[in-house]
From TrEMBL:
Name the UniProt record assigns to this protein: Stage III sporulation protein AC
Coiled coil (residue ranges): none
Protein's UniProt keywords contain Phosphoprotein: no
Source species of the chain: Blautia faecicola
NCBIfam families, A to Z: spore_III_AC
Residues spanning the signal sequence: none
Transmembrane segments: 6-23, 32-52
Key words of the record: Membrane, Transmembrane, Transmembrane helix
A Pfam family that the UniProt record links to this protein: SpoIIIAC
InterPro entries in alphabetical order: Spore_III_AC (IPR009570), Spore_III_AC/AD (IPR025664)
UniProt key word Ribosomal protein: no
Length: 64
């Protein structure tokens, strides 16, 4: 697993939390929720190949 992906996830987390706080304080809770949801989906798309590789490795490990 690359170290760069961890920094990307951290940057997205910080950016989403700041945007969410700004939107909540301006009275736009629905847009704050959508911003958080978009950040989560983005990170899941980045992490999904690593999860797939993990399951494939475990499957090969226990294959007879």
């Amino acid at each position: 697993m690359e170290v760069g992906i961890i920094f990307k996830i951290g940057a997205v987390g910080i950016l989403v939390s700041v945007l969410s706080l700004v939107l909540k304080h301006s009275g736009r809770e629905d847009q704050a929720f959508l911003t958080s949801l978009a950040g989560l989906v983005l990170v899941l798309f980045w992490v999904l190949p690593y999860i797939y590789d993990l399951f494939e490795t475990v499957k090969k490990l226990f294959a007879l």
